[in-house]
Structures are given as structure tokens and as C-alpha cells.
Amino acid sequence: PGSRSEINSLERALFCMQREDPSFHAKFVKETGQWTISGMGDLHLDVIISRLRREYKVNVRMGPLLIAYKECPVEDALSSSGWSCAVGSVIGYEKAIGIGVILRPKTIHPLHKPQVIFDRRGDCNIVRVRHAVTEACFSALEISGPILRSPIMGLDVHIHSIVCGRPEQISNGLEYVDGFSQLTLDKLSNAQIASSSLLALLKTCCINSVKDALAKMPKWHLMEPMMEIELQLPAKKGYDSELSTFLHDLTNRRAEIISVDNADIDERYQGENACGIEKYHCIRAIAPLSELGNYSATVRRLSSGRAELSIKLANYHPVSSEHLTKLLEQLSWNYPGNT
């Protein structure tokens, strides 16, 4: 918003609009202090911004559209292990937490939603601990993509080990831990297990362990959302050049043309037959979402408002190395794996 005094008004407005419209989502990003909103396209978001200003009297500013990229390991990626240790005070006692993880790629399903799996040595029957570790793993994967800090898909996180003891017992690494069975969390008192400081140590340690494992996986794919486009354009006599104009525009947007069909006019255009409309063209294509900014406005302009446009998510596809280089240059982002 334009001022701090409008923050509460913005929060209430976004809450109300999400309740009214299930296709609209808003999320507050602590790192930037901004709200990220998502909907059914740029026109939908324009309506949302207009309502915030007109109905809720909130002077909001909207930045550029953000593409929801995802990142996944390459097809031949191997498992990667990570380890981290965190030291802190737990109800007056200095404790060290050590967590070992193994990331196992699911290369057959690159968009596999990550799961957190507790292996035998890392298993823990303490619900608070399991919840804290699982939450920390998902938090790490949400912002740790090595290319653009995008959410990570296509792998599972295995909790290999969780140990707790004095710093000198653990800080040198898991391979130097003696008496593993005596360093499990169930050896702690109920008061220590219930301590918020212990959960904070667990989360910090788990996040660093996952990041350590991710850093050992050098090759990644950046996956971009691909949209399925269906464009229906009335075919007027003497205006066949309009079809080639739309096809050329789609090609410039890195679209793959799936089909171009002609069909007889149906009841939607019966009232326009006097204008010479006998058929309509139906164009089906797949295009990257990043190339479709203001596309609905372009369609309205090129067709004088006579075309019907439908866009929906089709799948995610790896970004080509050529386009990745351009994207990184555009964002002034330095990715070590882009060579």
C-alpha cells in the first residue's frame, strides 16, 4: 500500500476477496514485506487491483507480473546427502542438534511434489519434533532453487538421522558421533522437548542440512509453466489475413501451434451472419506463460473484440539453455551452473 496506515485495510480487503473468489490467492512474503497475488490471468488481476482502489479505498501499487517457475534435478541426478549442526540453550542447558538428510531425485516424475520421509535412524515418535522437521524441510525447498530461488520439485527428503547432545559430541559431524543410541531426542526431559528453543534449533538445523545437500547437486532444470491456448476467430470473407496475423503473433511468443481448424458458424454468431461471417477459425497452441503478458489485450485489438480466448495451464516444461541465458541476463542473476 501507499502508506503503513493502510496495511490493516489491505489485509482485510484481501481476506474478503479471497473468501468471495476461490480463484484468487494472496500470500504475504516476509522477506520482501510485500503481498504476492495470483489469479486467472492479467485481466483478472487488473479487476482485483481496481476493486481494491475503488471499493476498499486502498492505494495499492502493483509490480510486474511474476512467473511461477519451478526447479527440479536433471534426469541423471544422483542422491545427495547433507549434514548440519546447531548449538543453543534449551531451558538453561547448552545443547547441540545434528540432522542428516538424503535427497533422492524422482527423475521419472520431474514435477513430483516433495515428501519428507523419516528413515529408521532418523525416525522420531515425538509429534512436535516430526512436525517441526517436516515444516522446516518444506520451507527450505520453497525458496532454495539454485537457479532462481524457485520452489523445488522432483525429489524426496529422507531424514537420515537426528541427534542431540553436548556440542563436543556432535559438532564434528555424524561420522564422529559415538554412542548414537544415547543421543536420540527421546533421552531429553519432557520440559526440554516442549521447549520452543529446541524446536527453533531443530528448524534451523534442518533447513541448513537440506541446503547443504542441495548445494551438492550441480545440475538443475528450470521449469516454466506452459499454457494451453484456444482462440476462436470469426472468419469474415476477404479477411483471411487476420488468421496469419494471429499465427505470426503466437510464433513470436514461442508458441507451438497444435492445430488450426475451420468450423461452420454456430448459434453464438447467428446474429452476425449479415456481416458476412460464415465460419470461424479455431487455433490451438501451447505457449510459455512468460510470453503471454497482455495477450488478451492484443487479441481484443487484433480482432476488434470479435475473438474468443481461452487460456489454461497445460504443464511445465524445461526452459531451453538459450532462453535461460536471456532470462538470467534480464534478471541480472548469476547462476553458477549456467556455463
UniProtKB/TrEMBL annotation:
Ranges where the Elongation factor EFG domain occurs: 221-327
Keywords: GTP-binding, Nucleotide-binding, Protein biosynthesis
GO terms for biological process, alphabetical: mitochondrial translation; ribosome disassembly
Pfam families in UniProt: EFG_C, EFG_III
Record carries keyword Amino-acid biosynthesis: no
SMART domains xrefs: EFG_C
GO molecular function terms noted in the UniProt entry: GTP binding; GTPase activity
InterPro entries on file: EFG_II, EFG_III/V, EFG_V-like
GO cellular component, one term: mitochondrion
Name the record gives this protein: SJCHGC05257 protein
Protein source organism: Schistosoma japonicum (Blood fluke)
Lineage, highest ranks first: Eukaryota, Metazoa, Spiralia, Lophotrochozoa, Platyhelminthes
